[in-house]
Amino acid sequence: MELCIDFGGTEIKLAVIDDARVLSSGSIPVQGGAADLADAAAAARQLLAGTGRRAEAVGIAVPGVVGPDTGRMLHANAKYDFLRDFDLNAWSVREFELPAVVENDARAALVGETSIGSAAGERDAVLVTLGTGIGTAAMIDGIPLRGRTGHAGILGGHVTVDLDGPVCPCGNVGCGEALASGRTLRDAGDVTMSDVFATDAHADIRDSFLHVWGAVVTTLVHSYDPTVVILSGGILRAGAAVREPIESYVTAHLWPSMTAPRFVVPPEPELSVARGLSVLARATPPHATHSQEDQ
Ligand SMILES: [Zn+2]
Q: Which end of the chain lies in a sparser environment, N or C, as judged by fewer CB atoms within 10 Å?
């Protein structure tokens, strides 16, 4: 039985999973400070107590780049700056007496969906999460890409879409995420992603976002040659209104000799990350526990 903790953009999601079955789940709001760790630990203990069992492994997801050798977050968005270079494995040992596997959230979601989720059994896959930012991850021949320093596959939201576009907080110019994400809207005014897709009142923004997302996904398909593209994030509740334009754009702009991938929208996107963490926590040796001594 695995305890899974997903430090997400607006809430920390927790789940207890046993043999691919979600026994219990819950969430708490993110405050953006060290108190989040204490709150997450308390919520996790409460969740475990409800099952009447002990966890055998712990998986933790963060919205940032995770060093493959250390399990520490190398880079984070502002809200989670307090977790940068923090030893979550040692924290897990202190709180739960169990070491933790730590993974980037989009990569964990990809593992979840391709192992026990909506794309189960697929070995060549790309996942794109559309939300406050654009999270991506890629799998080739059944192996989730990590790369030398943990950045491989997860920076798909930062491919240049417009050389004359705005400067992105990442330092690059005209990134997909700078042009079409919840953050773009937040920086521009008070319209939210839900507003944009709820009615036709913001059709110009909606069409522009879909255009950018189509270009981003096309680049990911060209880069990783997947058989399936998993589209996730709260905005996918709008379903075909988001998926179909992206799929059409990709199909229309695909490299001539490529076969168009299948597009999948997970029915329970809020559990993708936790499912992946349960699989990773069961299968991956935890990061070296000697890192406790660094604290
Ligand atoms: Zn960027």
A: C
The CA 30 to ligand 1 mean position distance, Å, reads 23
Looking at the fold, whether 154 and 59 belong to one and the same domain comes out as no
In this structure, are 213 and 137 located in the same domain?
yes
Name beta bridge partners: 144.
139
Its domain, for residue 23, covers: 2-107+272-294
Length of the chain: 295
| Rounded CA separation 117/270 (Å) | 12
Instruction: Collect residues with CB below 5 Å from ion ligand 1.
Output: 158, 168, 170, 172, 175
Question: Among 232, 80, 222, which residue's Cα sits nearest to residue 159?
Answer: 222
Q: Note the pTM of the prediction, 2 decimals.
A: 0.93
The answer to whether residues 146 and 242 belong to one domain is yes
Classify residue 172: in a domain, yes or no. Answer: yes
- How close is the Cα of 169 to the center of ligand 1, in Å? 6
Q: What's the number of domains the chain is made of?
A: 2
Find the 65 Cα to ligand 1 centroid distance in Å: 14
The CATH number that applies at residue 195 is 3.30.420.40
Task: Give the pLDDT confidence score for residue 292 in this predicted structure.
Answer: 42
Would residue 21 count as lying in a domain? Answer: yes
How many whole angstroms from 175 Cα to the centroid of ligand 1?
5
Q: What is the pLDDT of residues 20-64, one digit of tens each?
A: 999 999 999 999 888 999 999 999 999 999 999 999 999 999 999
CA of 178 to the centre of ligand 1 (A): 6
Cα 160 to ligand 1 centre (Å): 8
